[in-house]
Specification:
The complex is a heterodimer. Chain A is built from eleven helices and 17 strands. By secondary structure, chain A is α+β, with helices and mostly antiparallel strands. The longest helix of chain B is centred in the last third of the chain and has 29 residues.
Chain lengths: 505, 407
């Protein structure tokens, strides 16, 4: 099953056996004895490129009774696989290029060369954009084309063949989307052998699809989705029914796959929403910045250990989306940042709610009166916990501080949160709301700095302004906020809302 | 004369029209003549401006001077349209008559144009051309507005393209309620048309698709034909049964299989137009060819009625869905007009061989010639000799039932 999931160019080579002491033992899968495993040479990854070939098919399952559905599927898959492996294909590439008038055109051709030919401009119309081609996020897309026969023309004969005998048959049509990734050395030519490998991989995916089609008889569309989780150094293609946003339908399958692929069982990595999109589909966080803290330098804490937010978040702040919430919306923006983390790390599919939606939710659950909607009233950590629970089914823990001066005394607890949960923390209380993205903490000396994301920023998505103005930055107790005034008011009460990451796949 | 139509220009070789008028004028017994304009349409989507090039005048048979029946003129238009190569269309109607007679006939001519537009669904509205004995030439639009008529050089700019195309051999399951054999044949035709979307070609080693914009002449033209071999490619998914949506189970009648069929296709393009027009011309020819074959087969079936396998099958109590049948679609024979004094451009015309023709190749050629000479009111047609002739399928195709449970 794992082999069918791998891209063309990647295969199962050997096995690794853990030993009680020392390094694990490697051996060839084919029983050829011990194997030596070395690290890949520098530049190895840069030398590899990616191609992608997707194919949409319809399978007609013809059966006389539902009991025969599995055999009908076998027949349909066998016929389709034979058609794929028996056809002499040309592979058409289409590389987008922007014209002078801003329109997007394509350079197309039949692919029989190397990825390097694009970068060097040998395919002269492809242009500068072609040099970015062939990465895992932007593989070169290929489409299968079949050639017409060049034999002498002969008049066609159409045959209509009615079904045989007294039995009545039914036909159920299932749509299948196959998606083969090829990883190849960038200088190698896409020759007949490579073409045959792609066809074989598509046929193998079709075979692997059968189990899903039988396991989900109510579903009529199935797809191979591609994933590149950080825990794996290769891409995997997984066949799922196309259940849209109803991810929990596939929970058991994902659990089994996590175990098979040795993926951690406490976070979603192969949901439908985790799949590589290859630039297709809309980006709901377009025009916003993500992980702005990565542009920062060191915190200044000597001998400290950094405990940071894990995964991706989007920076929400005042005045975004042309909504003027300056002076009152800081906690709303912190909440949006937190929700973006759950969306971007594939725990939920929700759209990030706007201020009005947040207010309406609080009214709906009885926490606020109806007049709250449309007002400029502040919310705090408790209200945020209600929203996370109601809209996302996410629970939270609260670390309470009787005064701002107390915050560094719970540095270990804060570090533990980032180590185990990795979610952004909403800081409420005092006068201003912030988002906490991490802590740099020296356990021996107690010295610590806090990675603060400030939602009070009112300008555009300019990373230099954001970092230069300390709208994201390492701060200590006693430092000023980016907008002026104390970051933490020493005498004020604080709640640190710590959203809990669901332990799930 | 009415306001000029700024969006439509008609081009013609001046020699061609003058010589045609000379031939008509020399026939002193001729009271007048009406017929079809056949030509090449040059697309120019951005400017929304149509340009047509007149390539042939095809008289409407069985008319007395300019006294013609509208319905017959349109029916003749449909028959001629089915015989044309890709890229070539019936672009309008002409009249050779004195000026005052043309004025009297304008309403009738406008009716013919409107009906041709409805029947043939051309890529641009048809036009009318009035010629008189004093070599006056006037073009009119469908609503009788004057259209610019300009001279152009045709001979060196008309390029013929040809290739061979494989119909899909992938069996297609016929299912769902309320169907008939005729409907299933119609669905086959639609599937073949759908396959042609996304088609690409290679001319020699040059790839051409719908976005290719360099002029045809850059591909190399020799003797009025593209210099390189043209190979056709279609997206595989469309061949592999990608023609229905995912659906719940429905009752199965049988399956449709095209057991053989690499068909000839031929078309014309303008040498200065983008190479993507080669694709368009071949696509047009293939669509027309599939439709024409099926239409002729059905027409023959209706003519022979009770003796024809199609008519017999439809009497099986299930509108033909319970009777195995092998449908031998007519083969395509292509002819050209020999160059004569009328400076013809050597256009190809197609005849689909009826099943009633027996005998060998010579009989087939004679039959085809006779039919086209009558259709085109022309003499001197010869077989097109550049390797595009189809042969009949001589294999006996077994008519059989389908066992879905067998692999």
């Amino acid at each position: 099953e794992v082999s069918a999931m791998l891209p063309v160019g990647v295969g199962v080579l050997g096995r690794c056996q853990a030993r009680d002491a020392g390094e694990p033992a490697w051996s060839h899968l084919a029983g050829r004895g011990d194997a030596e495993v070395r690290a890949v040479p520098e530049g190895f990854k840069a030398e590899r490129g990616y191609l992608r070939c997707a194919l949409d098919l319809q399978l007609d399952l013809v059966f006389s009774s539902k009991d025969d559905r599995a055999q009908a599927l076998d027949r349909a898959v066998e016929a389709a696989a034979k058609n794929i492996t028996g056809t002499d294909f040309e592979f058409l590439y289409k590389v987008p290029r922007e014209e002078d008038d801003g329109e997007v055109a394509h350079t197309s051709g039949f692919f029989a060369t190397s990825l390097n030919a694009f970068a060097k401009g040998e395919l002269s119309d492809a242009g500068a954009e072609a040099s970015a081609l062939g990465s895992v996020d932007s593989p070169l897309n290929l489409e299968l084309f079949a050639a017409s026969s060049t034999a002498a023309p002969v008049a066609p004969v159409l045959k209509y063949e009615p079904t045989d005998g007294e039995a009545k048959f039914e036909c159920e049509t299932v749509a299948v989307h196959l998606d083969a990734i090829v990883t190849t050395l960038r200088h190698s030519v896409f020759d007949a052998g490579a073409k045959a490998s792609v066809a074989a991989k598509l046929a193998a995916q079709l075979g692997a699809m059968k189990a899903q089609i039988l396991a989900f008889p109510q579903e009529k569309a199935f797809k191979v989705y591609q994933y590149s989780p950080a825990a794996l150094s290769y891409v995997v293609g997984i066949a799922y029914p196309d259940v849209g946003s109803d991810e929990m339908k596939l929970f058991k399958r994902r659990q089994a796959l996590h175990k098979k692929l040795l993926l951690p069982l406490d976070r979603p990595l192969i949901r439908l929403s985790n799949a590589l999109t290859f630039g297709e589909g809309s980006n709901s966080f377009a025009r916003k910045l993500t992980n702005v803290h990565e542009a920062l330098g060191p915190s200044g804490v000597k001998g400290g250990t950094q405990y940071l937010v894990k995964g991706t978040y989007c920076y929400f702040h005042y005045m975004q989306d042309r909504f003027d919430d300056a002076g009152w919306g800081c906690a709303y923006r912190s909440l949006q940042t937190i929700i973006s983390w759950f969306v971007l790390n594939n725990y939920v599919n929700n759209k990030v709610p706007g201020h009005r939606d947040i207010q309406q939710t609080l009214v709906n659950i009885g926490d606020k009166p109806a007049t709250f909607v449309g007002s400029k009233q502040w919310i705090g950590a408790i209200e945020i916990s209600f929203i996370l629970d109601t809209l996302l089914d996410i629970s939270s823990k609260v670390i309470t501080f009787n005064s701002g001066a107390e915050i560094p005394t719970k540095a270990r607890e804060i570090a533990h949160h980032f180590e185990t949960q990795g979610t952004p923390i909403m800081i409420g209380g005092g006068v201003l709301a912030y988002t906490l993205l991490g802590i740099d903490y020296n356990e021996s000396t107690g010295e610590c700095a806090f990675l603060i994301l400030d939602p009070h920023y009112t300008e555009g998505e300019d990373i230099k302004k954001i970092t230069g103005g300390a709208w994201v930055g390492w701060k200590r107790l006693g430092d000023n906020a980016a907008a002026g005034g104390d970051l933490f008011v020493k005498t004020a009460f604080y709640n640190f809302l710590c959203p809990q990451r669901p332990v799930t796949v | 004369d009415g306001e000029a139509d700024m969006k439509h220009t008609v081009l013609s070789s001046e020699d061609f029209l003058d010589q045609r008028v000379n031939v008509l004028r020399r026939n002193t017994a001729l009271k007048g003549q009406v017929g079809l304009l056949v030509g090449l349409r040059l697309p120019n989507a951005k400017a929304e401006r149509h340009k047509d090039i007149i390539l042939d005048l095809v008289p409407t048979p069985e008319t007395d001077g300019t006294d013609f029946e509208t319905a017959w003129a349109v029916e003749h238009g449909e028959q001629v349209d089915a015989s044309l190569a890709g890229g070539i269309e019936v672009i309008g109607f002409y009249l050779y008559c004195p000026d005052d007679q043309f004025k009297k006939l304008q309403t009738k001519v406008a009716t013919v144009l409107k009906r041709l537009n409805t029947a043939l669904k051309p890529s641009a509205p048809p036009v009318a051309l009035h010629l008189d004995a004093r070599a006056k030439k006037t073009c009119k639009s469908m609503d009788m507005k004057t259209i610019e008529l300009k001279s152009t050089k045709v001979q060196n700019n008309l390029v013929r393209v040809q290739s061979v195309y494989s119909l899909s051999a992938f069996p297609h399951v016929s299912s769902g309620g309320q169907s008939t054999l005729m409907k299933e044949l119609g669905k086959w035709r639609e599937r073949e048309s759908a396959r042609l979307k996304g088609m690409a070609i290679k001319v020699g080693s040059t790839f051409v698709d719908a976005t290719s914009s360099e002029p045809v002449i850059d591909l190399g033209v020799k003797g009025g034909q593209l210099a390189g071999d043209v190979a056709i490619f279609t997206p595989f998914a469309k061949a592999a049964g990608n023609s229905r949506s995912a659906a719940e189970a429905s009752s199965v009648h049988g399956r449709v299989v095209c057991s053989s069929g690499s068909v000839a296709c031929v078309g014309y393009v303008h040498a200065r137009e983008p190479v993507s027009t080669v694709l368009e011309a071949l696509r047009m020819d293939l669509k027309r060819s599939v439709k024409a074959r099926l239409d002729q087969y059905v027409d023959e079936a209706m003519e022979f009625a009770d003796e024809h396998p199609l008519m017999l099958a439809q009497k099986d109590g299930a509108d033909g869905l319970e009777t195995p049948i092998a449908i031998y679609l007519p083969s395509r024979r292509i002819f050209v007009k020999e160059a004569g004094e009328a400076s013809d451009f050597g256009l190809c015309y197609t005849h689909y061989m009826p099943s009633s023709v027996e005998g060998g190749e010579e009989e087939a050629i004679e039959e085809g010639k006779a039919h086209l000479e009558e259709l085109l009111s022309a003499k001197g047609l010869v077989p097109f000799s550049a390797g595009a002739q189809e042969r009949e399928n001589e294999e006996e195709e077994e008519e059989c039932f389908w066992s879905p449970l067998e692999r």
